[in-house]
Amino acid sequence: MTAASAESQATPDVVLIGGGVMSATLGTFLKTLEPNWTIDIYERLDDVALESSMPWNNAGTGHSALCELNYTSETADGGIDISKAVNVNEQFQISRQFWSYLVTTGQIANPRDFITPIPHMSFVWGNANTDFLRRRYDALKDHPLFEGMRYSEDPEQLRQWMPLIMKNRAGGQKLAATWISSGTDVNFGALTHLLFRALKAKSGVSLRTSTEVTDLTRQADGRWLVKTKDVRSGQTRTVSARFVFIGAGGAALPLLQKSGVPEAKGVGGFPVSGEFLRCKNPDVIRAHRAKVYGKASVGAPPMSVPHLDTRMIDGKPALLFGPYAGFSTRFLKKGSLFDLPLSVKSGNLRSILGVARDNWDLTKYLIQQVLQTQSARMAALREFVPDARDEDWELVVAGQRVQVIKPDAKKGGVLQFGTEVITGANGTVAALLGASPGASTAAPIMLTVIQRCFGEKLAEWEPKLKEIVPSYGKKLANEPELCAQLRKSTTEALQLED
């Protein structure tokens, strides 16, 4: 038997498709729970974290609903529904616990290599928006997950919190903001590299870059044949795995369709691209240290909430404003223009047509964004930074997101703006589709994959899972003392006292 044919008979326990933070997180969980398992990881590009996990392709917000207004909605009676905000924050606390475990066990040496304390703020203007923000604050301020949030309409206080935004701002406008010190900036690209570095140091883990997965076929014995191709040499390889995770960003949908599992029927994808203005002036960058989120325009998708973001990338501060939405038929930033048309199948055509019919506001918004001029982009920035100068800012293309289209009996299809875990074939395959809050909630999302796909192992794994995530199986929103204890311990482990 030749070396090439011997290699084709490889039988890893787990195959992870995609070299982003999701695969890195799931691989870390599984290798911790089952040290003897073998794991093969495949990434189409030359390195890991070059798509959505790359820091310039996302806002880096530790999404915990501390500042994102789209996670709280107004009810018919004028109240504020905080349930989604609480859920998102709960999820982020799980990620913090997971990262803290990796630091305390020495798998990540320096947490400041990927996470930095940055205040999170919400900022609005006008009477109606100010009234909304005040009621939002009143609904959140006494919740244990949002402890420390402050609210102000006082211009002097706002100048202390966000001097760049308040500098030379015209008077006579009603302004309000919330501020909380426990926010973070997360470099998910750096985190992904750290996770894979620790994984590769363990026996039985193989990471192959420049390797594209071309097909998935389930065998009679329940295992999966995973066919790959080296994008440089064209050499093909096939392995047989007990479990496959498809965490390939926008490429997850086509691969899920190739798997042939019934759960993929009717599922489609709607790609939305993003752009940011990036500041080039070091003096302007130094004048702002916060993540400041405003309110989205009517008809805008949640991922298009305007924000002025302090980032820490490769140890240096940066400043981004956006995002400005765009449209491309690519499912990945480095994908093909044929990604969208090739994803349309007879099984999901009804879903896609239903979404096209019911989302004209989104379609109009995207058309307006695509046609937007640089002067219009700068005008939007000046609502946040009145003194913004054209020469200080440049347009950069961010990552590509594919929103999930799910079948619906009445409407044909509905457009989802969150993340979706789809499992099939008795839990032997799982795919992650969707976008925000995305990477911030990688740990709880991967726990969902584990619970759905490895149910028979949960009782055995539970002690270790509770060691990794002390709140496992509990709701911090219902346990204020545990919430305070874990916030303190993870703050210390992650060195988040600024």
TrEMBL record:
Catalytic reactions on record? (S)-malate + a quinone = a quinol + oxaloacetate
- Tell me the enzyme class: oxidoreductase
The EC number of this protein is: 1.1.5.4
For molecular function, the Gene Ontology terms on record are:
(S)-2-hydroxyglutarate dehydrogenase activity; L-malate dehydrogenase (quinone) activity
Quote the pathway field.
Carbohydrate metabolism; tricarboxylic acid cycle; oxaloacetate from (S)-malate (quinone route): step 1/1
Q: Which GO terms describe its biological process?
A: tricarboxylic acid cycle
This protein's cofactor list reads: FAD
Coiled coil stretches, renumbered: none
Q: Which UniProt key words apply to this protein? A: FAD, Flavoprotein, Oxidoreductase, Tricarboxylic acid cycle
Q: Which HAMAP family match?
A: MQO
**Hey, which family's this protein in?**
Belongs to the MQO family.
Q: What is this protein called?
A: Probable malate:quinone oxidoreductase
What is the originating organism of this protein?
Answer: Acetobacter nitrogenifigens DSM 23921 = NBRC 105050
Gene name of the encoded protein: mqo1
